[in-house]
Automatic annotation (TrEMBL):
<dbReference type="InterPro" id="IPR029063">
    <property type="entry name" value="SAM-dependent_MTases_sf"/>
</dbReference>
<protein>
    <submittedName>
        <fullName>SAM-dependent methyltransferase</fullName>
    </submittedName>
</protein>
<dbReference type="Pfam" id="PF13489">
    <property type="entry name" value="Methyltransf_23"/>
</dbReference>
<feature type="domain" description="Methyltransferase putative zinc binding">
    <location>
        <begin position="2"/>
        <end position="61"/>
    </location>
</feature>
<dbReference type="GO" id="GO:0032259">
    <property type="term" value="P:methylation"/>
</dbReference>
<dbReference type="InterPro" id="IPR013691">
    <property type="entry name" value="MeTrfase_14"/>
</dbReference>
<dbReference type="Pfam" id="PF08484">
    <property type="entry name" value="Methyltransf_14"/>
</dbReference>
<dbReference type="InterPro" id="IPR038576">
    <property type="entry name" value="Methyltransf_Zn-bd_dom_put_sf"/>
</dbReference>
<keyword id="KW-0489">Methyltransferase</keyword>
<dbReference type="InterPro" id="IPR013630">
    <property type="entry name" value="Methyltransf_Zn-bd_dom_put"/>
</dbReference>
<feature type="domain" description="C-methyltransferase">
    <location>
        <begin position="241"/>
        <end position="398"/>
    </location>
</feature>
<keyword id="KW-0808">Transferase</keyword>
<dbReference type="Pfam" id="PF08421">
    <property type="entry name" value="Methyltransf_13"/>
</dbReference>
<dbReference type="GO" id="GO:0008168">
    <property type="term" value="F:methyltransferase activity"/>
</dbReference>
Length: 403
């Protein structure tokens, strides 16, 4: 049953037994790993693409959640630009107030604070919230939901902007989120969120965008229907090049603003390509299977030819591809990553050891499987000595290929 509208959900993709994508395990703790069956379907009524089973939120988002928004130069720049966009276009009135749901380490709100604008982050993960507080960002430690929205409105007054990046698609219980936003938002305020876009996932075969935390994969069509259901209206969309292709959705209260031409254009382009049709989604599932087999074939060839292989970027999304394709330390002996909280641990499910990025040069890899493909440009430029020394990058999005 659809988590948004109660309609019939048809499964189109079975990604098998999967661990929690950000649960990097200690070498002696592999026996206790949590697994669930990752299946994805689409709603017949509202077109929402969603997982069929829910992982309890406390298992995914807790005090040692390792992902940080500021981990990439490009993402830091993106969020600073985002803050300026919100301040220039949306924060009306003499004393605007901006709330971010899932404020992580405060990368976006730090720019709002620097502009002297009232702000509040709502963040359930203690570790990243403390990083934000150390930078002077106001953070409330909580999962955002109906009661939290009402409490913030009572304490700080209505918000002109409620923003969320890579957070709304994480939350199955969006009815409560919308009620909280309804309680918090000023009458002419906007709810702006950005998340991975179904159009990009299908076009790039980026099936690794689907993992425990990404419960929904949004499209303009499904967000439009969801907004209507909860008394809001989709009034603007903007495609973003970050995280492998996202869309920034702007919602206002129904009737409060005139939707931009971009909304109708994106919905029409989705309908024209049959984005939410089962035939399109089944074809995508077949591609997922083919690419996974290609990747394993390529890795087996590299291993058999005696080349030294490693992974680069122990991303959350790499859990999906390694566990679905069955890639373990026999094919990728280790993965290099800059996040201290992941180093010395094993990748979830696949148990590939994570090593500090500083040890990368000394390891002397011939081929690097780029799990963090969404940061390909930044990483390949940073590690230019690797290619200069004859090394080659192995990518699997949108196709398996050596660079
Ligand atoms: Zn539905």
């Amino acid at each position: 049953m659809c988590r948004i509208c109660g309609g019939v959900v048809n499964e189109f993709l079975d990604l098998g037994r999967q661990p929690l994508s950000d649960a990097f395990v200690e070498p002696d703790e592999t026996a206790d790993e949590f697994y669930y069956h990752l299946r994805v379907g689409v709603c017949e009524s509202c077109s929402m693409v969603q997982q069929l089973a829910e992982v309890p939120r406390e298992r995914m988002f807790h005090d040692s959640y390792p992902y940080v928004s500021s981990g990439s130069v490009r993402m830091r720049e993106h969020f600073t630009r985002t803050a300026h966009d919100l301040l220039e276009c949306e924060s009306t009135g003499s004393d605007p107030f901006i709330v971010e749901i899932g404020s992580n380490d405060g990368t976006m709100l730090a720019a709002v604070r620097a502009a002297g604008v009232r702000h509040l982050g709502v963040e359930p993960c203690g570790g990243v919230a403390d990083v934000a507080r150390a930078a002077g960002v106001r953070v409330r430690s909580a999962f955002f939901e109906e009661a939290v929205g009402a409490e913030i409105a009572a304490q700080d007054g209505p918000a002109n902007v409620v923003f969320a990046a890579n957070t709304i698609c994480h939350i199955p219980y969006l009815d409560s989120i919308f009620r909280g936003i309804d309680a918090l938002l000023a009458p002419d305020g906007v709810f702006v969120f950005e998340d991975p876009y179904l159009g990009d996932v299908i076009e790039k075969n980026s099936f690794d965008q689907i993992y425990d935390e990404h419960f929904y994969v949004f499209s303009a069509r499904s967000v439009q229907a969801m907004a209507r259901r909860f008394g809001f209206e989709l009034v603007d969309v903007r495609r973003l090049p970050v995280h492998g292709g996202e869309v920034r959705y702007t919602l206002a209260r129904a009737g409060a603003r005139t939707p931009s031409a971009a909304v109708a254009a994106l919905v029409a382009s989705e309908d024209a390509r049959g984005l939410a049709e089962l035939s399109t989604l089944h074809a995508f599932a077949a591609e997922v299977d083919r690419i996974s087999r290609d990747l394993v074939g390529q890795l087996e060839k590299l291993r058999d030819s005696g080349l030294r292989v490693a992974g680069y970027g122990a991303t959350a999304k790499s859990a999906t591809v390694t566990n679905y394709a069955g890639i373990g330390p026999d094919l990728v002996p280790c993965v290099f990553d800059t996040t201290p909280a992941k180093q010395g641990r094993l990748m979830p499910g696949s148990h590939i050891p994570v090593r500090p990025a500083e040890e990368f040069a000394e390891y002397g890899a011939d081929r690097l499987l780029l799990f963090a493909w969404n940061h390909a440009e930044e990483i390949i430029a940073k590690e230019k000595d690797f290619a200069r020394g004859g090394g080659r990058w192995l990518l699997y999005v949108p196709e398996v290929r050596l660079l």
